[in-house]
Amino acid sequence: MVERFWIKASPRTWLGVGERIIDEARWWFRKFDRVAIVTGRRSAKVSGALDDVEKILEECGTKYVVVGGVVPNPYAELVDRIAGDVWRFGAEALVAIGGGSVIDVAKLCSAIVARGGRAEDYMKRRRVVEETIPILAVNLTHGTGSEVDKYAVITVGNEKLSIASEALYPEVAIDDPRYVATLPRNQTIYTSIDALFHAIEAATSIQASPFTEMLAETIVKLVATYLPRAVENPKDLEARYWLLYASSLAGIAIDHGRVHIVHAVEHGLSGVKPELPHGAGLGIVGPLFVPYMYRAKPSTMARILRVLDPELEPREEHGERAMRALINFLKSVGFDERLSNYGFTSSDLDEACRIVSTSLGYLARLAPFEVDIEEIRKMLQSVL
């Protein structure tokens, strides 16, 4: 395993990767007298991350409170409740211990505590985030990249909305493979699928560049190599290490290239049914869009997906072959799900498409091809 290291992953974020890397972040904890820790329901404790953070805070003599209960696809009302608890405690900084949902909630809480207002003010009314309180993010999945990017995604009503701001970057991000060794098998798969599509979309969006293509090629190779190992042996820390690295690279990639149609459609679906895990939704619908992306950018897609099928060529007609290669890879690691597994009906697809064409249109327009909402409706019906 490569030794632990630090890199400047964003204009504001120092990312530490490796076992017990949090021990080298004591300088950050010492800056504050009062810190609030934002967590999910169980993972912070089960992973051992919460114990490590509490030990450091106690050694630094820092007062702290744990505010838990963040769930996947969190609602704005939950953000408001947690922000209220953080504000009443008088926290000067936040520690987010969890996956993307926890980190996104902490980002919005940091803005609300610093500037006031409610989550809906920032998400639906697109209020500009200009000031936040500092965040240290302890990442507990290898998928979202939220620990190194400027985005926050929250559910408002039945719509998943996102905002982006330089002020939302965590100051410090921690990726320790020990903390994801307890990640359940399905979440190991789902979050890695998220990183995969961050890579593919960032390399093919209208804001893509040679930089995002380079990142995507590395990310897909790492996931293809190490996800099967992590599924077979959850305690394989080398596999977890490289999946975390791939995830953080994917977070950097979407910061530069953005996601587009696959994420737009998944956000529409999980807006209708929040119980749909983000990565599962991407895994169900994402391969359907591979032929479209391949036709738009055959050289890019051949380059980044050739690790899944060495015979792929930069020709438009290889799009279907690339889609099959991706589906076969997902099946090989145990992912073979449909929307009906989560109770979706045809009427749910209508509502999801409406959301995609309205509030998520800004994401869809980043795709390298014209989006036809009726065609998307038919595609979703095929995986119902």
Report on this model:
With 384 residues, the chain is an alpha/beta fold. It has 2 domains: 5-179, Rossmann fold (3-Layer(aba) Sandwich), CATH 3.40.50; 184-382, Dehydroquinate synthase-like - alpha domain (Dehydroquinate synthase-like, alpha domain, Up-down Bundle), CATH 1.20.1090.10. Helices cover 52% and strands 12% of the residues. The protein is built from 18 helices and 9 strands. A 7-stranded mixed sheet has the order 1-2-9-6-5-3-4, with helices on both faces. A hairpin with a 2-residue loop joins strand 7 and strand 8 (159-164). Helix 8 (185-204) runs parallel beside helix 10 (237-257), helix 13 (290-296) crosses helix 14 (298-305) and helix 13 packs across helix 15 (319-332). The longest helix has 23 residues, at 210-232. It is globular and about 60 Å long. The relative contact order is 0.11. The model has no long low-confidence stretch (mean pLDDT 95).
Taking Cα atoms only, what radius of gyration do you get, to the nearest Å?
A: 20 Å
Domain module count: 2
Chain-averaged pLDDT: 95
Helix-strand category: alpha/beta
Largest sheet: 7 strands, mixed
Roughly what percent helix? 40-55%
CATH architecture descriptor of the largest domain: Up-down Bundle
The CATH superfamily of the largest domain appears as: Dehydroquinate synthase-like - alpha domain
CATH topology of the largest domain: Dehydroquinate synthase-like, alpha domain
State the strand order across the main sheet: 1-2-9-6-5-3-4
How many helical elements?
18
Q: Helix-strand pattern, N to C?
A: EEHEHHEHEHHEEEEHHHHHHHHHHHH
